[in-house]
Amino acid sequence: MQNIKVISLGGSIIVPDKVDRVFLKDFYRLIITYLEEEPGRKIILVCGGGGPAREYQGAYREIIEKSIPSEEDWIGIAATKLNAALLKHMFAGYCVNEVIENPTIVPEFTGRILVASGWKPGFSTDYDAVILAEQFSADAVINLSNIEKVYTADPKIDPAATPIDRITWVDFRNIVGDTWVPGKNLPFDPIASKKAAELHLRVIIASGKDCGNIKKILYGEPFHGTIIE
Fold first, then answer.
1. Quick check: 131 and 103 in contact, CB under 8 A?
2. Which of 145, 140, 134, 147 is nearest to 204 (CA)?
3. In whole angstroms, what is the distance from residue 77 CA to residue 49 CA?
4. What's the mean pLDDT in 70-77?
5. Which terminus of the chain has fewer CB atoms gathered within 10 Å of its CB, N or C?
6. pTM higher than 0.70, yes or no?
7. Which CATH superfamily is domain 3-228 in?
8. CA-CA distance, 221 to 229, in Å (whole number)?
9. Alpha helix positions (H), 19-92
10. pLDDT by residue (tens digit) across 153-193?
């Protein structure tokens, strides 16, 4: 059986304001080393929109002086495609397939890395990662972003908020709610959370900037983050 890891790589990690070349070099080396150690290992990378998505969505809202969520989503999806193109060509030779835009229609996974972008309005790329985990029978999604752990509340708003090491889907969904808002910074988007709960899928929330911690997750070692299951 193939060992497939699904990583939802937040756009805030790829392009916080501009492309984070230092992180991507470290991430590139980590992934290549991980794959080369065992021939059966494969990785699916799902790219978020990051700084470009927020910048263009903000410009859109300011120009028309209102917000239509579906239109904002399409702008964000365009940003994910640019980030996905960067990742695909970074891993040229390992990533044989074209960038996946619709996670419900997937080709034979012929390389070692599969890269996916956003799909359509109504949810973030977290949902795409969940669907791809279902398609390829992965048992978990590793969600890497600028959020290190799930907290009982937003620590930027509530000073009494405390970090959580492990949480059930029922309790997590009580924290994030059921509504998707384009550009909102949540540990895992509500629509993806609902689907993951239905699939009994395990999701790992961790900081995407710490490649040492990412390595621990990939190798099944104790790590800093939150497990949702």
1. yes
2. 140
3. 7
4. 93
5. N
6. yes
7. Acetylglutamate kinase-like (3.40.1160.10)
8. 18
9. 21-37, 50-64, 69-90
10. 888 888 899 999 999 999 999 989 888 887 677 899 999 99
